[in-house]
Design a protein that fits this description.
The protein is α+β, with helices and mostly antiparallel strands. It is built from 17 helices and 21 strands. The chain has four domains: 112 residues, Phosphorylase Kinase, domain 1 (2-Layer Sandwich), CATH 3.30.200; 191 residues, Transferase(Phosphotransferase), domain 1 (Orthogonal Bundle), CATH 1.10.510.10; 98 residues, no CATH class; 87 residues, Orthogonal Bundle (Arc Repressor Mutant, subunit A), CATH 1.10.10.10. The longest helix has 24 residues.
Length: 531
């Protein structure tokens, strides 16, 4: 590792700030390792990123700093180094370039290429549903970066919208190789069996802690493409464990069912990218690029044709809304959602197509409904959440046209119950087990939860701050996650009796009365430490 300690005085290091103050620490105005720090860009789970200028070359850079609380833990230092080394060996237009890394006094840093733009998550937030041609272009560029990674035996392991940067010219740059693993490196920091990554985009084999190859990155990229073209993630639950279980065993939702305007061929490719078994996915990023390029050209040609060949009359709604007969409806009801959530749902309505439901239930346009139904030749029960687009007659039957925003399957044995996951499950590797097939002890639940990084961080925070009342936003900031993800996680801790939530947005961190649970927490924290 390069050592630039001589460039920063010992006095400056004394001013670096305590671990607890790091979130509020600002290095702006200082010169570190030949870089003039201009201002902070953001704060993450492992550190902060600054906008800076590399003085010798007069170029703008992103200066990434490791949180000092990790600087005494060799595991985190090696992971930080591995991010720099993994990215540095991958010189490509679609990968964020690493210029330098090292240590300056007590500061561990990486000097990255500065990407003047946002990321794919910003694009999804702005557009709701990304245009399929643009989504395919982003995925193709990402694939081109993965081709280089695969050629160097590097697996990213955390492909997601936030890690796909976008320049103002629309160029994709894969960022954050902090979880990357060199396949041939037996001394890699991350041990076999440890789950790392982001649950919403994590491959089933990654959720199980198994050995990975490039097909795991292809899965995560498939989930990202799914998110872009539908405006939603394929698997969601009230807990991280629930999400992991769905990644492992749930049926993959068809993106075309959510966005009917998406070509069936593109939907089929996304489904193959997200196949549960790696051998059923594309074997390489190179193979996938060819398929995606073909889809992109077909869509471009189709768009040009539509511009030239204008239909003589609009297609009737009865042709755009597939009939869902009353005999196949198990349950139909109106969903009450907060106004903000309803507005978000309306923003996702990009086309006028869906299903026509036979019903005489009194509903109005823009009502949110939940429908459970069966389909010909399928054993599953489907659960769709959608928006009523129009109410009227379809031939002799009264009914309503509904555009689904989310469609998932429901096991037949749970048709009469709600499908939200509220319980802690026995193991993230029990593929065939129903969500609530058996109860687990609180101590066993903790052992399951600590297989995921977020729960590890939360347990450390909980142990260090037990007996206090803390604002949820403060916890989220300390863990480097959003309150949305933290909400489901805290729900599990509340079930275990570890916290008590208040409507004011604060939680009491209570030390448990359960002796077995106490021993499990103390044992885990003693083994892995509070860093």
């Amino acid at each position: 590792m390069n050592n630039h300690a001589a460039e920063t005085s010992a006095g400056d290091m004394d001013n670096y700030g305590s671990e607890s103050a790091f979130v509020n620490e600002d290095l702006s105005g200082r010169e570190i390792a030949g870089c003039q720090i201009l201002h902070k860009l953001g704060q993450g789970a492992m550190g902060a990123v600054y906008y800076a200028e590399q003085v010798s070359l007069r170029r703008k850079v992103a200066f990434k700093v490791l949180d000092p609380k990790f600087s005494r833990d060799i595991t985190y230092i090696e992971r930080f180094e591995r991010e720099a080394q993994a990215a540095a060996r991958l010189a490509h237009f679609n990968i964020v370039q690493v210029f330098d890394y090292g240590r300056s006094g007590e500061i561990y840093y990486i000097v990255n290429e500065y990407v003047d733009g946002g990321d794919v998550q910003d694009l999804i937030d702005a557009e709701g549903v990304v245009d399929p041609i643009q989504a395919l272009d982003i995925t193709i560029q990402s694939c081109n970066g993965l081709v280089i990674a695969q050629s160097q035996n590097v697996i990213h392991r955390d492909i997601k919208p936030e890690n796909l940067m976008l320049t103002k010219d629309g160029v994709v740059k894969i960022a954050d190789f902090g979880l990357a693993k060199v396949v041939t490196d037996d001394a890699a920091v991350t041990q076999s069996g440890m789950i790392v990554g982001t649950p919403f985009y994590m491959s089933p084999e990654q959720a199980k802690g198994l050995t990975l190859d490039t097909r795991s990155d292809i899965y995560s990229l498939g989930v990202t493409l799914f998110h872009m073209v539908t405006g939603q993630i394929p698997f969601d639950a009230d807990s991280v464990i629930g999400v992991l279980l769905k990644q492992i065993s749930a049926e993959r939702p068809d993106p075309v069912g959510i966005n009917p305007s998406l070509p069936a061929s593109v939907g089929k490719t996304i489904m193959q990218m997200m196949a549960r078994e790696p051998e059923n996915r594309f074997s390489s990023a190179t193979e996938l690029v060819r398929i995606l390029e073909k889809h992109k050209q077909e869509l471009k040609h189709g768009a040009e044709s539509v511009q030239i060949e204008v239909p003589s009359k609009p297609v009737d709604r009865s042709e755009r809304y597939k009939l869902l007969r009353k005999s196949r409806i198990i349950r139909l009801g109106k969903r009450q959602v907060p106004p903000a959530a309803a507005d978000q749902m309306m923003a996702l309505l990009k086309g006028d197509a869906g299903v026509f439901i036979e019903t005489d239930m009194p509903l109005d346009e823009n009502d949110i409904v939940e429908v459970r139904f069966t389909a010909p030749g399928r054993d599953e029960v489907f659960r769709g959440i959608g928006v009523v687009r129009w109410v009227g007659d379809n031939g002799p039957s009264a009914g309503m046209g509904v555009t689904f925003l989310k469609v998932s399957t429901v096991p037949r044995g749970t048709v009469s119950t709600r499908t939200s996951v509220k319980s802690v499950h026995p193991s993230a590797t029990e593929e065939a087990a129903p969500a609530s097939s058996r109860k687990v002890s609180p101590a066993e639940a903790i052992r399951v939860l600590t297989k995921t990084p977020l729960h590890c961080r939360l347990l450390r925070y909980y142990y260090a701050n037990s007996g206090q009342t803390v604002d949820v936003n403060k916890i989220a900031n300390a863990l480097g996650v959003g309150t949305r993800m933290l909400g489901g996680t805290l729900a599990i801790y509340e079930q275990l009796g570890l916290i008590k939530r208040h409507h004011t947005g604060t939680v009491d961190l209570k030390w448990p009365d359960d002796k077995g649970l106490q021993r499990e927490i103390v044992s885990w924290v003693s083994k892995y430490g509070l860093l």
